[in-house]
Amino acid sequence: MSELLIIAFDDEQSAFDLAERLQPLKDDMQLETQDTTIMTRDAEGEVHLHNAVNVPLAQTAGGTVWGLLIGAAFAMPVAGALAGAATGAMVGRERDPGVNSDFLKELGATLKPRSSAVCLQVRHVDRAALDEVLEAFPVRGHLLQSPYTPDEEGGLRSEVERPGS
Length: 165
Fold this sequence. Notes:
By secondary structure, the chain is α+β, with helices and mostly antiparallel strands. It is built from 6 helices and 5 strands.
């Protein structure tokens, strides 16, 4: 089961920067996410969603590999790869994995113009490792949602929203 962790910032760049700082935790399996989306709201108030993974491209690549393998079993690897790529592209175009895009756009509409938020659909997190990254992050944010109990959330909120920056 995954839970949402959403941190907003008063500028358009900090959500991208925090996502980048969290990448080593993902690489070390200290943070497992099903989805990571950055929301920005530009000066005109338009909400933009930035996904870490291009789903149609990933589905196309996966379909190509499976099509190649299945096609090879029937002595038609090129035809299998083409059919797999086409199927993967269609599935990827229609599939909306992770956090619902409509929910994210609604949430993004509550952001101030020229601001951003990082939305993580978390499967597992090493809380100590996350705390370390948040304490070292130079920009203060606003905790919008977390998967923690009220007591745990209070500690996380103090790390994210601490004064002094």
